[in-house]
Amino acid sequence: MECDGSIVTYNIDNCCQTVNAKWLCLEDIYHKFHRPNFYDIGCTYIADIPDHRFIYTTSQVGNIFLLQLFVSSPQEGSINVTVSNSNEMTFDKKTSNVYLDKSMTNFQVLRVGEREASTGFVTTYSFNELDVECLKDKTLYIAITFKNSQRIDINSSTMDFGDLLNDPVGADFTIESLDGEKFPVHKLLLAGQSEVFKAMLKEETAESQNSYVKLVDVGKEDLQCILEFIYSGTVKDLESKNCYNLLMLADRFNLNGLKEITQHALCYQLTHDSALEILVLSDMYNANHLKMEALKFIKKYNCILDSTFFDEIKNVDLVRELCRFLAI
């Protein structure tokens, strides 16, 4: 791709202006998928002043490769950024370039200090082993634009939000779990990441006026995971958590990023004993990627249908969908 000032890259000779940004350039992506870590993409600029810095992480859950995109800025406030939100790849046969340019989605991302980019989670992309093999010796470009962005100023300090969860300086709200564990938190962060929390924290609600809510059906470990995701954009050691509960809670609190990574973790937990239960769960909480993986697993090992759990499924539409899928 010709370097025309629209590509965000770590090449210091390419000073991409924020208003001109069209592509994030991820070089040597194949090897980075096999070396999980944080990787720098580069900055957009206003004149010669750095504006937005993009960073991504690579990780692997079973045979699924994840790429999580983050953004940071030295400015205060939040911004709307439009990014491709699909892992459908377009290959340029004349070059070694691969593009993610489908399903452009607008994200409102909290702008935070440049010291920790992971506090500005944007979205997650998932790839299977074949996808990653196809990226060998390729450069990946992710479509992006700020042209319709609207700056929203907020009174946010440039702090490490992960640290804020462990040392809640300035906390203005308390969430209590089912088992009595209390978590001092920050209304701004909760409202910025979840429309459900945003509605709960409106001035006229009892929760907002009391600066307190008890989630009577959420245990402390699950609540810890929810808050960890809100504050840092990820959950450490996700595979060891109760992903069934986290998928349900991600759907309940409209935490799409948590819902995505939980689906991928549950894909790795598909077994003869769990596949039908995971299928029911995915259907109940609109986890389409997980549902498709469960359907494919059951079709591959159709002896699963001999289990007593199959006879206990009450959702007629789901059973009909399963039968149709098996008949394909």
From TrEMBL:
Pfam families cross-referenced by the UniProt entry: BTB
Lineage: Eukaryota, Metazoa, Ecdysozoa, Arthropoda, Hexapoda
Residues passing through the membrane, by range: none
Alphabetized Gene3D superfamilies for the sequence: Potassium Channel Kv1.1, Chain A
Residues covered by the BTB domain: 171-239
Domain of life according to the entry: Eukaryota
PANTHER family, alphabetized: SPECKLE-TYPE POZ PROTEIN (PTHR24413)
Descriptive protein name: BTB/POZ and MATH domain-containing protein 2-like
